[in-house]
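If your schedule permits, I should be very grateful for your opinion on a structural question. What I wish to show you is a protein chain and, alongside it, a tokenised description of its three-dimensional fold. Would you kindly read the sequence against the tokens and tell me how you understand this chain to fold? Here, with my thanks, is the record as I have it:

===
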Amino acid sequence: MSTNHAFHPEAVKTLSTAFYKAWTFISNDPRFAMENPALLQRRLSACLMQLAAEGEHDPSRLSNGAINRMRHGAPRQAAGQGGNGNSNVFCCSA
């Protein structure tokens, strides 16, 4: 999944709104309680950008879609991270 996307200013504002809405939920969700908050935020950002690149522009649908993808994402080794057990990232699956 590539996260190399360029977004116009209005899309950035929408993504920011969706991020904070989703983060409020994820940061209080027990299923994510033991995960590194910085990694969770990166995963959330990647999911939101992917959804926006796929054409979603509504902050509520972006937020809900990212939460859903994070809840159902499959672990994957981060590129160039080796197998040290601390390098899992989660893909945003469609």
About this structure: Residues 74-89 have pLDDT under 50 and may be disordered. The helical segments are 9-26, 37-53, 59-72.
